[in-house]
Amino acid sequence: MSPAPLSRRQKKLLADAGGASPGPAFLNSYKPWLVLVGVGLLLYFRTFSFGFTYLDDNVLLDRFDFISNIANLPDFFRRDVFNTQAGGAYYRPMISVVSMLDVLWAGKDPGLYHVTNVALHLSACCLLLLTLLKLNYGRGAAFFYALFFTVHPVLTQAVAWLPGRNDILLAVFSLLSFLSFLAFLEVRTWRRLAAHLGFLLLALLTKENAVFLCALCAFFLLFLSAPRPERRTSLYLWAGWLLVVPGWFLVRLSVLKTVTGDAAFDAAGSLAGNFPALAGYLGKIFFPVHLGILPVLKDMPLSYGLAAAALTGIMIYFSRTKRPRFVAFGISWFLLFLAPTFIQSSASTANFREDRIYLALIGFVFLLAELDIPGLLRLSGRRAAAAGAAVLLLFFCLTFSYSGNFRDKITFWKKAVASSPSYAFNYNNLGSMYYLDGNMPGAEEMWKKALELNPRERLAHGNLGLLYMNRGNFREAEANYFKEIELNPRYDNVYLNLGILYYGAGLPDRAASAWETAIKLNPDLAKAYTDLALLNYQRKNPGKARYYVERMRERGLYVQPELLRVIGK
Length: 569
Fold this sequence. Notes:
about 575 residues; mainly alpha; two-stranded antiparallel sheet; 30 helices; 2 strands
């Protein structure tokens, strides 16, 4: 089985599509793969010196002792990705597995984590090239569009920002599963079916978006395979999907307890309200000049997207080589994998990070590869190659320049504020970065600005409470902690800091109560156990102190040698 065959005219046109058709000897060798990898390394090599941005990547540091212990590997499949306890909202164990591998070989060196991100990106680019060839696109077109994907500026955040690896990993497993699916259609063997289903499961364990891969494979099976697959082949595939997807769903449900976990999702409402952001994403594909970190809909210029949609429609209508069903397949891939981006928690303002388009962009590449763009522009031969090279060079330069915004935490959050100035979350986090760097006036200014934009912004009051506590302003600190608890009652750290405030004010009973609450909210909060152990030792209750130490050990938390020495255990 194989995709629907091309006519002789389509093969000739598709062979030159994309304006990048080096000589046949070049295309029929291993050199395109080397060029793809070399261009990607040249583009992203400087990220190897980048640090942490303190947006989700700091979890590697916060949970370093837990993640670095290989004995905790099974727990990744029993717990939410952000918490080491049951519950949460995101069941994505594979990103934790990759993080463990990073920690085991790199320690706390973020530069080596960035090496992993680039390696995953290059793997996805090579798999895309292989997929395009498998779908019968000419080698020139396949090579051009694989390069197009490699250097596209809208993917910068996925590669240069460490947590962006989740979407890259999703793409890697999804492409491997799709390639195995195509191989199974050609030659029906159990090994190929097992590979397809195995990679599908890994994709589902990476991100729940992978469930749409089954729908896309079913679309391909029903409408694009030529000749039509045998009934037994279809039955094997449907049986495999009906085994893997419900099995994954039940495991996920057992961990998160509900379908959406502890997040409040209004799927229909948020999808309708956020759908205009599709224009923002579409505009960044054609005109990647208004890229931004954590943009919200209000700050996204949609006019570029409308122009891009019109341009796409014109190209589809007038292209001579298009196969309508393959056009529909590319559009479906793009929309299905991007759709979950618009369904976001109602508890916070929706943002539209650019790393979320990573897998969806592959579908748009399928669409572009299906069209005779050089023919539409009346370009052929050297002119088409020159135009394609110019686009790739422009995108390379834009990506190289934009990637610098992910260099460190201050640069990252300054860009976030500049690109989305109406989003309070960005100001709150820039204030936190100033605080970490010792810039207290700057931190206070940003936190107050965040509350001006959104008086209910989570963490901002807690951050101000910490600032005032360090200044010795007990009343202001306590008032801000209470306000944070009112807005964010399940935030463990605010109780931890409130306990520290009470302890410093000579109120040990209140301190103990606050720390106990913090542990109830997060049973893996090592600092709260440590503080309770020391407090009970000081109150001449060594048995209770040892009790908290034992609880830390039971949960696999790191116990400081100094603590053991103090309590004599």
